[in-house]
Amino acid sequence: MILCDIGNTSVDLFMDGKRTKLSVADFNPVTLQDDVYYVSVNASLNERICDLMNWHDLRAFIDWDKYYSTMGIDRIMVCEAVDEGVIVDAGSAITVDLMQDGLYQGGFIALGLRAAQEAYSRLSPALNVSFNFEVDLTIMAKNTPDALTVGFLAPLIEKIERLGKPIFLTGGDAHLLSRFLPEAVVREDLIFQGMNKLIEKGVKC
Amino acid sequence: MILCDIGNTSVDLFMDGKRTKLSVADFNPVTLQDDVYYVSVNASLNERICDLMNWHDLRAFIDWDKYYSTMGIDRIMVCEAVDEGVIVDAGSAITVDLMQDGLYQGGFIALGLRAAQEAYSRLSPALNVSFNFEVDLTIMAKNTPDALTVGFLAPLIEKIERLGKPIFLTGGDAHLLSRFLPEAVVREDLIFQGMNKLIEKGVKC
Questions:
Q1: Considering only CB atoms, which chain A residues are within 8 Å of B158?
Q2: pLDDT averaged over 10-residue windows placed end to end, chain B, 205 residues
Q3: Beta carbons of A137 and A154 less than 8 angstroms apart
Q4: How far apart are CA A85 and CA A73, in angstroms?
Q5: Are A43 and A87 in the same domain?
Q6: What is the 3-state secondary structure (H, E, C) of chain B?
Q7: B71 Cβ contact partners less than 8 Å away, ≥ 6 residues apart
Q8: Which domain, by its residues, includes A43?
Q9: Residue B106: CATH number of its domain
Q10: Where does residue B178 fall: left (phi above 0), alpha (psi -120 to 50 degrees), or beta otherwise?
Q11: Both B56 and B87 in a single domain?
């Protein structure tokens, strides 16, 4: 059994306990013979997949009463991995979701680190600086890189902490954010853990 | 005496207790005969002003030991207006600065509301939605507009409140933010109050 997370630019595969990442351009779904359970936000790859008998869309496994209909499928998958806690997926956006007794409590979407830095640089040449990830977020800043970093990260990190639940970090910037959330558990494969749990629950007809 | 705040696209004048806003393109500094005390971030207008005898750059009045050298001049001016409190200037960026006993304690810079919305829309077509300013920021969101609004505003608003000081709101989005900070005082002319206080203190040679 293969798990597959298809994004707009990359394809993440999980097989035999190992994770592989490919670019969408390099990926041909026909090359996989095993049963593949997948999620996908990629419309053009979806067209090539829909006729393949061994590919199973995990959307059919979701209990949609638990989530809202326009919620991103990748957010749902990471939520499925956690019964109790805050799930922070730090990717192109930073999504924060709350699970309690296996039920979805809602969440929010912040900009990802790169998107935020780019937005600052568009505001003014004076703000075209890199974030300082060594900064102390508890201290008000007295230089520009710190002011941007504190301005973007301090409110977000403190908000996540004040939700008062175990924190699970995933996504490309998980390790970076873990510097500021030392109590958090980093689970790079959280989406695949969620996909596995969902498969065990079975198809919702 | 006229006070003048020159930005990149607009010129804000304060004379006879009244505020007037002009576009930079429509503004000719030579037309003002009175003494003009100004701040400016506009390099090209600065060239036209530097030879005018009645124009006085307020940079000369600033005690730079109080602030950091790369700090925006408009931030310094609004800080000068407040001895004790948090100054939130909600413009193209949202700057947050802390004053205590008339001394600057540091601050941070968040994206402005428009810059944040544009950044979300660049991330994904699914996030190309308007913020919902009726949202309850204390509740985790279960739809996309709320998720973005809560994601951007809740951490920021809560951070500002937790600084635990009187809050002074200014800038173009001051009234909008005041919905979420009902205890804050809105002072649209805060920059001119700061400029006046600085002028009373006199030039720092």
A1: 155, 158-159, 162
A2: 91 94 93 95 89 95 94 95 98 96 97 98 93 97 98 98 98 96 97 96 74
A3: yes
A4: 19
A5: no
A6: CEEEEECCCEEEEEECCEEEEEEHHHCCHHHCCCCEEEEECCHHHHHHHCCCCCEEEHHHHCCCCCCCCCCCHHHHHHHHCCCCEEEEEECCEEEEEEEECCEEEEEEEEECHHHHHHHHHHHCHHHCCCCCCCCCCCCCECCHHHHHHHHHHHHHHHHHHHCCCCEEEECCCHHHHHCCCCCCEECCCHHHHHHHHHHHHCCCC
A7: none
A8: 2-61
A9: 3.30.420.40
A10: alpha
A11: no
CB spacing of A115 vs B127 below 8 angstroms: no
Looking at the fold, whether A120 and A182 belong to one and the same domain comes out as: yes
Q: What is the pTM of this model?
A: 0.93
**Out of B110, B140, B159, whose CB is closest to A107?**
B140
Closest CA to A173 of A125, A131, A113: A113
In this structure, the answer to whether residues A53 and A8 fall within a common structural domain is yes
> What is the 3-state secondary structure of B174-203?
HHHHHCCCCCCEECCCHHHHHHHHHHHHCC
B156 located within any domain: yes
| Pairs across A and B, CB distance < 8 A | 127
